[in-house]
Amino acid sequence: MYKKIGILTGGGDAPGLNAVIRAAVRTAIGEFGMRCIGIEDSFEGILGETQLTKLTTKKVSGILPRGGTILGTRNKGSFCKIVDGKMVIPDMPIDEALSNLKKNKIEALIVIGGEGTLAIAQQFHNRGFPVVGVPKTIDNDLSATELTFGFMTAIDIATEGLDRLHTTAASHDRVMVMEVMGRNTGWIALHSGLAGSADVILIPEIPFSFDSVVKKVYERERNGSEFTNIVVAEGAKEVGRDEMYLDEGNLRLGGVGEYIRHNVERITGKESRCVVLGHLQRGGSPNAFDRMLGTNFGACAVRALARGQKGEMVALKSGKVINVPLADATAAIKCVNAEGQLVRTARDIGISFAAPNEEDF
Ligand code: F6P
């Protein structure tokens, strides 16, 4: 049994990070008598001078409803750089990190993060250091788990956003466009679009055409609705074009919402507005589901370490937390199935994905 474990959070913050930390600390101390060390600012905290903090049950008291992470996080740094517009994970600092872990008698790690963070965790495993990962991201784009924590809160926020935009759209007879996060997947757009009664949902998995977007606006007008609500994933692409970036060098997606607003207004002459929901989707208190899922993930991750499991990630499958190899978790991103049930349901209830041949579906 490990005497001392390290816990770190990496990548963008997501609602539920503190729930995982709290559950991991309470389980490790209360159930297994382990000591817990929080590593600050992701993997950066085990480099150089190190930034480590003792985690006690008192220290994690009251953090369950808090957004962000008490440990701090980074989505770029010594372990993860962007070179020529591509995410690169250099091998170099692992030696330094391993030696610092040894110096501080940290025998195993719980790494809470998304694709990039878990890929770094895999490198520690490859070097023989015990690691268990916990899948975090509002994007829900990790394969090997049905859900990541943070996603459910993000879609609650996006749904509320759509509800609120709906009233302005209907009152002013406007086209309202809401751009949501999700990187190169459309999970947030699809789920919130269904829950918030969008008329058009644009996702990276189904390239859109303006002809089809505009057809939907006109179809609604013919049926007596003078307004249209569009939700667009930041990574959505027009047919024949790439995704749009605010800052391509740093791989910061964005701009597609305004692009759609501008062109829909230009083509239809209808007054249109765009709202970019941005980091509102990541900030603030986690909803009940993410508190529950984060708590279960945190406790299960510690139990996995205590059982001697290594190089694994906790994952949700059919409502139960299981363990899967870390390598499976980072092998490929999980995309929306364009022929899947949820897309079918959306189309059946009249939502358009603005594919060039949308009417054939
Ligand atoms: O991966 C989470 C996420 O919020 C994405 O949806 C988004 O593209 C990105 O992070 C934004 O990152 P940053 O906080 O660096 O702007």
Protein described:
With 361 residues, the chain is α/β, with parallel strands linked by helices. It has 2 domains: 4-150 and 286-329, Rossmann fold; 151-282 and 337-360, Phosphofructokinase domain (Rossmann fold, 3-Layer(aba) Sandwich). 35% of the residues lie in helices and 19% in strands. The chain contains 10 helices and 15 strands. The chain has helices spanning 17-32, 94-103, 115-126, 151-172, 187-195, 210-222, 256-268, 288-306, 326-331, 341-348; strands at residues 4-9, 35-39, 52-55, 81-83, 86-88, 108-113, 131-135, 175-180, 200-202, 228-233, 245-247, 252-253, 272-276, 312-317, 320-325. A 7-stranded mixed beta sheet has the order 3-2-1-6-7-14-15, with helices on both faces. A 4-stranded parallel beta sheet has the order 9-10-8-13, with helices on both faces. Strands 4-5 form a two-stranded antiparallel sheet. Strand 4 and strand 5 (86-88) form a beta hairpin. Helix 1 (17-32) packs parallel to helix 8 and helix 4 packs across helix 5. The longest helix has 22 residues, at 151-172. The chain is elongated, with a radius of gyration of 22 Å. The N and C termini lie far apart (56 Å). The relative contact order is 0.17. The model has no long low-confidence stretch (mean pLDDT 95). The structure holds 6-O-phosphono-beta-D-fructofuranose (F6P). 6-O-phosphono-beta-D-fructofuranose (F6P) is lined by residues 12, 75, 114, 137-139, 181-183, 234, 252-253, 282.
